[in-house]
């Protein structure tokens, strides 16, 4: 059985997204939250083709983008 690069890249992006999400919420950094949302877009696109409630996972980047927007709005 070979090594699956696609799965590795998807899990790596999910891990990066979670790290930047925790860091962005902790430091109140809108840039970190934006990076979290961007890195979560590709893995969430995989779930758009699902036929059940897994399709809702595709909306997770929107939460990161909204958090980034409200954080930037409240800083100024």
Question: How would you portray this structure in words?
Answer:
The protein has 76 residues and is mainly α. The chain has one domain (5-75). It is 74% helix and 0% strand. It is built from 3 helices and no strands. It has helices at residues 5-27, 30-46, 60-75. Helix 1 (5-27) packs antiparallel against helix 2 (30-46) and helix 2 (30-46) runs antiparallel to helix 3. The model has no long low-confidence stretch (mean pLDDT 90).
Could you give the topology of this structure?
Layout: H1 5-27, H2 30-46, H3 60-75
Helix pairs in contact: 1-2, 2-3
- Work out the helicity level: over 70%
State Rg: 14 Å
Principal-axes geometry comes out as flat
Proportion in β-strands: under 5%
- Structural class by helix and strand composition: mainly alpha
Oligomer: single chain
- The topology string of helices and strands comes to HHH
Specify the number of helices: 3
- How many strand units? 0
| Largest beta-sheet characterization | none
Domains (count) = 1
Which parts are unreliable, with pLDDT below 50 for 5 consecutive residues or more?
none
